[in-house]
Write a structure and sequence with these properties.
The complex is a heterodimer. Chain A is an alpha+beta fold. In chain A, about 45% of the residues lie in helices and about 25% in strands. In chain A, helix 1 packs across helix 6. The longest helix of chain A is centred in the N-terminal third of the chain and has 18 residues. Helix content of chain B is about 45%, strand content about 20%. The longest helix of chain B is centred in the N-terminal third of the chain and has 19 residues. The termini of chain B are far apart. Classes of the chains: A alpha+beta, B alpha+beta. At the A-B interface, helix 2, strand 5, helix 4, helix 9 and strand 9 of A face helix 2, strand 9, helix 4, helix 10 and helix 12 of B. Chain A: GO terms for molecular function: metal ion binding.
Chain lengths: ~425, ~425
């Protein structure tokens, strides 16, 4: 695998050359500050962009066009990274080498991507009905997400824990913001995205200089844009918020939200700590709460170190919510007190390396890893060096600077256990 | 050992049947860091009535899944932990007709392979550990009960089928799993985890001889000679559905619909034609209901469906059905429109050569993309193998499919006489 980073037409291009895949994957990423006012607009905009273009005027025409290129897959998605909102367009398609037909797939699809990226510049009233359709479909998508009781619990948790902080916003926007969006909002956001966002093109597959030449057709910018990459600064308080909501559900979903003092805790040590605490099948939460105590089937922890946040998430019996909270805290205390073996620490570090190698076997995994490196301005050697510096003391230090902030429970039980016990 | 190279897709498969009956398949992926292994027993949730050694057994629902959970626990601790110590990620899953144990790693491969084989081959159950597992699995069952997609699906299977065990949740129920004892687990293990009832698929970049020598030595050391024959019993499933409509209420934002068409006409078809039929149905459904179709476009425009609309066909030896899922308050109209378009396809020349060519191209593209994934290869190779087919022969099956095949199969499989509707509606 060979990685070439160049700048073409004022856009950074990360070309990852490998012959182990039978496909090509191109991702175009746009990044800007996460802003409540624009996340919903950016979601509707990206949906519209992958469905109709100037040249392919209906969804059917566009799908048929992609089908001709052996079912090229075009998708869009938005994510939250630190304090940024990222809009991704990804196209995956077969390498011509395996196809017995004379098609210039790579080049044609780069031209198509240009058509896709520039179409919103020409939106006019004719596109209004299409906008209304996409607003309705996005609304449906968000209400569908809320049909999952775990997702409801998670969103409620964010709203309580980050009451007045922008970290409460989800990457897909808000249902109540959809109705008022106009075509002007969409066009304005598109212009801003094309001009002011940090834009990157990543490509993985058996590329050659010929393919890189085709990539130039995707887009051209007047200026090179590089934006700062930060996380949110959360406030550590000594008060723990408790909230329990009741619904007709079969199992309680309980989430413990922790804040990590970012300035005190090393980022790589926090990653390793999360693996050991609840981020793997060998973790303390999994081994002790699930396997030994049979408290839960679902139990794990998730880390967003850029924003200094850790969640422990469990699906438990209505009557065992408080017991779960107590045991999660006991497990955390074990790390604070250094009750873990040197072997477990080394295993967890090895797991981290193994997961990275694993992701390098998937086109999208390669892209995600390399995009992460691009944002953080690091490379594999730097990450390896950071990992080698993780010690028993640095993991204990992360655990000591991890503070419980909020305990949220969505339950079907009849009493508020968190208050009664 | 048999070796086959598939030139067009540049893949090589090595296949050997061990002396004790275990089938081992190695698929070489040059340049991949990841090593992926599946070890599969032909024992799934529907295998709850069987005869072995002249005795017939009816075992509790959910036992295949329960056994899968218990195999990770041994006298000296949890095997998850040991895989983790060796840098591997292990997992397992149970489906209607098989249980698969798997791991992936980038290092310590042979140690992990030995761990997997020992874990699956050497059971250890106690009364106490069986009791403890009931608690965890009960939480798993409850987690699924809170999932509207799962509820609408299970309710549909309960309506479509009258007797077939597919209508029972793979995990069983709290009542059924409470009946499980260590004795029944040992019986199931001895019966279904015998080497001649298992398949191992390995994907990665290895020295072929070293790999097969390692597995051969391990399997020979097991000294298993007494291989038993298993007879499965299924009650005859009537063609008719049990209930036309079923409904339940949940905390959902809008009504969920799942429409099913039961299809039991098959039975004695040869394996190759079953694989061909599955691909034909995938094509036919996509041409009529997929994102390129007139139906989909109109239904989206009329706000009758949204992007959650989906469909699929699934058939094995003893069951078969086509499912449609949709979301929205106008489920009745959605059902009517699906029935209208089925009728239109039956009575007109709906399918065209151009549509079929487009399907074939798309499938080939998706297929190539799937071959970039060791997980996909291992899981799908196992599925095709157990069904008596070969994953790497898909392109040649696709070549053969004609428009006539598509229409005939679509008409045969989607018969509104054998239809059920399952609804999950919001609480009032």
């Amino acid at each position: 695998m060979k990685i070439n980073e160049t700048t073409v037409n004022n856009i950074p291009i990360i070309d990852i050359r490998t012959d182990k895949f039978k496909t090509f994957t191109i991702r175009i990423s746009f990044r800007n500050t996460l802003d409540e006012k624009t996340t919903t607009v950016r979601n509707i905009l990206s949906r519209m962009m992958v469905k109709r273009t100037k040249k392919l005027r209906t969804e059917t025409e566009l799908v048929q066009f992609l089908a001709k290129y052996y079912g090229a897959h075009l998708t869009e998605g938005t994510t939250k990274r630190g304090d940024s909102h990222v809009v991704n367009f990804t196209i995956e398609f077969a390498n011509e080498r395996f196809i017995h037909e004379d098609l210039n797939i790579f080049n044609d699809l780069c031209e198509f991507l240009n058509d896709m990226l520039t179409t919103p510049f020409e939106y006019n009233e004719e596109w209004s009905a299409f906008l209304e359709q996409e607003k309705r479909l996005h609304k449906n998508k968000l209400s569908l997400l809320m049909d999952s009781s775990m997702q409801r619990a998670y969103i409620n948790m964010l709203n309580i824990m980050f009451k007045d902080e922008p970290n409460r916003h989800m990457s897909f926007g808000k249902i109540e913001h959809i109705d008022s969006i106009t075509l002007d909002d969409i066009m304005r956001e598109h212009k801003k995205m094309m001009k002011e966002d940090e834009m990157v093109i990543l490509v993985v597959g058996q590329t050659s200089d010929e393919e890189v030449e085709s990539l130039k057709k995707i887009y051209s910018r007047d200026n090179y844009v590089k934006l700062p990459y930060h996380g949110f600064d959360g406030q550590i308080t000594n008060v723990i918020n408790y909230q329990t909501d009741y619904e007709k559900i079969e199992q309680a979903k309980t989430i413990l939200g922790f804040r990590i003092e970012k300035k005190q805790a090393d980022m790589m040590s926090a990653r390793i700590f999360n693996r050991m605490f609840g981020g793997s099948a060998a973790s303390y939460l999994f081994m002790n709460l699930r396997e030994k105590l049979s408290l839960a089937y679902q139990i794990h922890s998730e880390l967003d170190i850029k924003n200094g946040v850790l969640f422990a998430i469990a699906g438990v019996d209505f009557n065992r919510v408080k017991e779960t909270e107590i045991h999660v805290m006991k497990e955390l205390d074990k790390f604070r007190n250094g009750e873990f073996t040197e072997e477990f620490l080394e295993e967890s570090k090895n797991q981290f390396l193994s997961a990275r190698l694993d992701s390098m076997d998937k086109p999208k995994g390669v892209i995600a890893t390399l995009y992460g490196h691009f944002l953080a301005g690091v490379d594999f050697e730097y990450v390896d060096e950071q990992l080698s510096r993780v010690t028993r003391e640095s993991v204990i230090n992360v655990a000591k600077h991890t503070h419980l902030d909020t305990v949220y429970t969505l339950t079907g039980g009849e009493t508020n256990e968190s208050e009664t016990l | 050992m048999k070796v086959k190279h598939y030139k067009d897709i540049d893949e090589t498969v090595y296949h050997e049947k061990m002396n004790n009956g275990l089938e081992v398949i190695y698929i070489k992926k040059s340049g991949f860091n990841k090593k992926f292994v599946t070890y599969t027993a032909k024992f799934g949730s529907i295998d709850n009535d069987f005869t072995v050694d002249g005795t017939r057994y009816k075992i509790p629902d959910g036992i295949a899944h329960f056994l899968e959970h218990k195999m990770f626990e041994k006298e000296d601790g949890d095997v998850f932990n040991k895989f983790s110590q060796k840098g591997a990620n292990a997992n397992a899953f149970t489906s209607y007709d098989r249980t698969t144990y798997l791991f992936s790693c980038t290092e310590n491969f042979y140690e992990n392979l030995k761990l997997l084989m020992d874990m699956v081959e050497k059971p250890f159950f106690t009364d106490e550990s069986v009791k403890k597992e009931i608690g965890i699995i009960n939480e798993e069952i409850k987690m699924y009960q809170d999932n509207p997609g799962f509820r609408v699906y299970n309710q549909l299977l309960e309506s479509l089928y009258q007797k077939h065990p597919i209508r029972i949740d793979i995990a069983g129920t709290l009542e059924s799993i409470s009946e499980i004892t260590k004795e029944t687990l040992y019986l199931c293990h001895e019966t279904f985890y015998a080497p001649n009832n298992m398949v191992m698929v390995i994907v990665g970049d290895f020295d072929t001889e070293e790999l097969f020598d390692f597995i051969r030595t391990h399997q020979e050391n097991r000294n298993i000679e007494d291989l038993k024959e298993i007879t499965h019993h299924f009650e005859v499933e009537p063609k008719a559905v049990l209930e036309r409509i079923s409904e339940t209420s949940m905390n959902v934002s809008d009504t969920r619909l799942m429409l099913g068409f039961k299809y039991l006409e098959h039975g004695e078809e040869d394996k190759y034609n079953e694989a061909k039929r599955d691909i034909i149905m995938m094509f036919a459904l996509d041409m009529v209901f997929g994102a390129q179709s007139k139906f989909y476009y109109e239904m989206i425009n009329e706000s009758l469906i949204d992007e959650s609309f989906n469909f699929g066909f699934s058939a094995e030896h003893t069951y078969g059905h086509t499912l449609f899922t949709s979301r929205g308050s106008n489920s009745k109209e959605v059902v009517d429109r699906i029935l209208d378009i089925i009728e239109e396809v039956k009575t007109t020349d709906y399918f065209t050569e151009e549509m079929l060519l487009s399907q074939k191209r798309e499938l080939l593209g998706d297929y190539l993309s799937s071959l970039d994934s060791p997980e996909y290869i291992a899981n799908q190779y196992t599925k095709y193998l157990l069904d008596g087919n070969n994953l790497y022969e898909i392109p040649s099956i696709v070549e053969e499919i004609t428009l006539e095949d598509v229409k005939a199969t679509f008409v045969e499989v989607l018969d509104p006489k054998y239809m059920s509707e399952s609804l999950v509606v919001p609480y009032e």
